[in-house]
Amino acid sequence: MAIRTRFAPSPTGFIHVGNLRSAIFTYLIAKKDNGTFVLRIEDTDQGRLVEGAVNAIYYTLDSCGLLWDEGPDKGGEYGPYIQSERMDAYKKYALELVEKKEAYKCFCTEDRLSSMRESGYAKYDKHCLHLSEEEVAKKEEGGLPFVIRQKVSEEGSTSFTCQVYGEISIDNKEIEDQIILKSDNFPTYNFANVIDDHLMNITHVVRGNEYLTSTPKYTLLYKALGWSEPTYVHLPHVVKEGGKKLSKRNGDAYYTDFINKGYLPDAIVNFLALLGWSPSDNNEKFSLEELEKAFSIDRINKSPAVFDIKKLNWVNAQYIKELSLDSLKEVCMPHLVSSGIAEGKDEAWIDSLLLVFKDRISYGQEVIELYDEFFEQEFVLDQEGIDFLNEEGVNETLIAFRDLILNLDDYKAGNIKPLIKEAGKIAGSKGKMLFMPLRIATTASMHGPDLPQVLALLGKETVVKRLNSLIK
Ligand code: GLU
What we know:
This protein is mainly alpha-helical.
């Protein structure tokens, strides 16, 4: 049977990286076997809808390359793909369950339910299950609002199998007679997902493991409706080190948080694919296409997946190195502008800056930090630097270089480079004894990016001033 999977987000805001990880796995499970990836919008919780959230879902999936084969905007033979447009189906099957005595109408008021909870009931006390048909008819005629509840036996247990977590069984007396259809005819998530997954012919239901405990309810619904169950694939949580949550407050919860910091979509996908799944070899760099080939359900782990920002930075840096200068500029420019670094600088200066940092930068925003580290720090030598500058012949090297620089009209990296060698010739120094004193005397550091580029970025005036301050 051809595989059909679905990503079923609720349009409640930006896409959380944990949810995006689910989307990636869902996509890969379908694509690995040339299956179909469906996008379904789950908007039955009308109170939680956020304007623009559907567009955020489209944007996120689209920019990550997780292209859906069927969905609200694409159409498909199982549409509509927005739950609020599928209301007739939910009502039809809820009434069918009532007819089969697998569900019942419940007229309990909010007051009754809350006093029931206050007196210690953990779940609904099945009060309306015991109403006679006449009583139900009378209440309905009187126009009393009602919900429809799933009828769950107090006896026995229900089990299902998850491809990741194995067989899970739960005593039926633990399961509440949950509401499946609300009084406004909207279904609950727990009901709608079963109806839609069946009607949309979904073969593999892939979602977070927070749904493991609700799945027995779905198993019972499938049974009551006489339908066969899909294959379940539950995914481990995505957490930070120490089990902490990725949060809005820390700015590490949403896909857009990372895009805004200058991470690249391909790198994010690569990194997230390794959260809870591991390839059979040690490879860590995967394009989406490569993931489609390498992915397999049996290599999904049960234990929580740790979102390690250092690893994300490493992965992202690999992708940054492959960017053209123009693409790198696109990623870094917003940060150079917002930090004020770009102010008054021409294009050539920006280009040199990015060329200097290309191999060091992990994500766009880091350009600010790197810039500050190399160009804004106070010019203070440490003891090691001072000792180096006291070595024999160093003073002559600094003087020769300063004089050459002073006479250079077109001050740019390409023209500075040959002057370093020339200064060496004049002062009789070479190798480490030529480059190191010049680097220390101009940047106060023994390490750094390509020296002529750095000197060009510092500007002639600063370089000469620093050299003069150290020449004896
Ligand atoms: N709308 C649910 C959510 O966003 C979908 C869960 C599922 O995949 O069934 O969590």
